[in-house]
Amino acid sequence: MSKDVQGWRRKFGVLGPSTNTIVQPDFDALRVPGVTNHYSRIFTPNANAISNETFLAATQVIANNVIDAVKSVMTANVDYMVMGMSAITFYNGNKGANEFKKKIEKTSKVGVSVGSHSCTAALKAYGGIKRIAFLSPYYPAANAEVKKYFADNGFKTVRDIPLLCPTWTAIAETTEDTCIKTIKKLDGPDVDAIVQVGTNLSMIRLAAFAEKWLNKPVIAINTATYWHALRTNGIKDKVYGFGKLLEDY
Question: What tens digit of pLDDT does each residue of 16-57 get?
Fold first, then answer.
């Protein structure tokens, strides 16, 4: 069978909101030889997420539009799907995550890595993690869904901080300084690991740095999701500069 000359190992179809400007460069930074990323944008109005209700409603718009993006990227005959939007993959706990995953797979007829399950797999890969803290660009109602999802998978959330970003594009404007201050607020001797969710917030490099200064796992969701996609497809390459997950597991 003939192979794509650049994606000779795998062609990944990456699904992300049309407002998301971080996933594409983040995933390209994590890419390994023979794997190519093919970004398919989910139409997403740049809604002002000014309350719990409007945030949840706006993320449901993304969920409703995802299948069109799946159908579009599948015309490239991709081998596997990677979900570049995380909030909706946490809704309704493990049951909701599994249902969303099945929805993508039913249309694409290929497997998919989603942010929620990828973070769980990453936490389990490190081993010995029971108590976590997490930050997000979300609103409290969405953080509650994330907390419920992690509880379904055996992790107790000790602390969480929603950054209350006012628009989808504003998430990508979150500064490294803000993330550092937030990590420091989350950390403590009662926390085994820190997780960052929200794919339009870039923390793939900062998480690696934070692991060294905190001496504990710090998992950025974009790193976890791409790692999960690689490993699920039998690609064991080590990628350096983005934390222990891609270097050791």
Answer: 999 999 999 999 999 999 999 999 999 988 777 667 878 878
φ/ψ of residue 248, rounded to 5: -115, -15
Does 248 reside within a domain? no
Residue 1 inside a domain? The answer is no
Residue 106 sits in the same domain as residue 199: no
Q: List CB contacts of 134: < 8 A, sequence separation 6 or more.
A: 143, 146, 150, 157, 160, 161, 186, 194, 195, 196, 197
Assigned token pair, 246: 């891609």
pLDDT in tens, 59-81: 877 878 899 999 999 999 999 99
CA pseudo-torsion sign 217, 52, 116, 10: negative
3-state helix, strand, coil in the chain (%, to 5): 50, 20, 35
Residue 160 phi/psi, 5° resolution?
Answer: -150, 150
